[in-house]
């Protein structure tokens, strides 16, 4: 078995069995809506549809990139894709590097298009793969494998730095992103994997042709944590210590979302520690176009699609309830809902020079 597939098996197992979340809060706790005692709408009329990649989604949600490349991954992807299709939401796959190394593994990814024919699917490659001389061909192949609607390039410098076999050359990734964005005919998404993206980086990404940013912020799955467990198991003490030290490294999700969403014209996806429909609503009020989750869906996806749907149905119910309690009848009005920001998130945004008053919007 190729090393990439063996690593994927470890990632799934550890993410399910161990406690791999960050100790630092996403920032959602610092954000509050102003309760509306007179919503003047009927909860059953709350409409959560939205548009993404020229598709009408039934909810502003995306199943984040998780896996592919192993028999278990095929089952997980199949269950996630069935749930995405039934609920009319977008879905990503894990890094497709494994299938580019071994074409026999293509099915473990393409099952997603088979089971989810009508929703947007996001292909996925890592920044280190961009440095390969065949990067443009890889990107085209990854897209073709899924008939994908957008290509994610994940920026996972933290993970590569703490991973025992990590690829730590990130030189000229921006230049490569720029080249690839010109050579593919679907949008390019830049995505972090748990350490968040700042406004400065988002501006560079925009200049390289990136149309959509998935903030992948701190507060949910920590890749330093996952790699800590792998390194400990492999008795690689130095890497294990690195993983422990950088367990909570990064920009919390809410801070990163506000930073990235402040860029005009940027489409943003909020992810990293999103755990309730209330978090989803807060992310949308703070500027997110879509909201994504990975870890809460992983274990249910090892079982069946009904279990995945159950988790997402709960999220949808909570989102609609939040909208009812703020008087937001649709996603557009939710975007205009005032929020109050306090605690470490307020401090972060003020120190970073953001005028948080604009977030405390008035209802029109
Ligand atoms: C088991 C597992 C595997 C993942 N693999 C990938 C990947 O291959 N590519 C990627 O861009 N993100 C990957 N992620 C990161 C997620 O897409 C997401 O950004 C991150 O886990 C934060 O969301 P969460 O807190 O809801 O898990 C993976 C996450 C998990 C839990």
Which percent range describes the beta-strand content? 5-15%
Separation of the first and last Cα atoms: 59 Å
CATH architecture: Alpha-Beta Barrel
Helix-strand topology string: HEEEEHEHHEHEHHEHEHHHEHEHHHEH
Q: Oligomeric state of the chains?
A: single chain
Question: Over the alpha carbons, how many angstroms does the gyration radius reach?
Answer: 19 Å
Structure description:
This protein has a single domain (3-359), classed as TIM Barrel. The chain has 364 residues and is an alpha/beta fold. It has helices spanning 3-17, 71-87, 97-101, 107-115, 135-146, 157-162, 173-183, 199-207, 223-233, 237-245, 253-261, 277-285, 295-303, 305-326, 331-335, 343-351, and strands spanning 31-33, 50-52, 55-57, 61-63, 90-92, 121-126, 150-155, 188-192, 212-214, 267-270, 290-293, 339-341. Strands 4-5-6-7-8-9-10-11 form an 8-stranded parallel β-barrel, surrounded by 7 helices. A two-stranded antiparallel sheet has the order 1-12. It is built from 16 helices and 12 strands. The model has no long low-confidence stretch (mean pLDDT 95). Strand 6 (121-126), helix 5 and strand 7 (150-155) form a beta-alpha-beta unit. Helix 1 (3-17) packs across helix 9, helix 12 (277-285) packs across helix 14 (305-326) and helix 13 (295-303) packs antiparallel against helix 14 (305-326). The structure holds flavin mononucleotide (FMN). The site of flavin mononucleotide has 26 residues, from helix 1, strand 7 and helix 13.
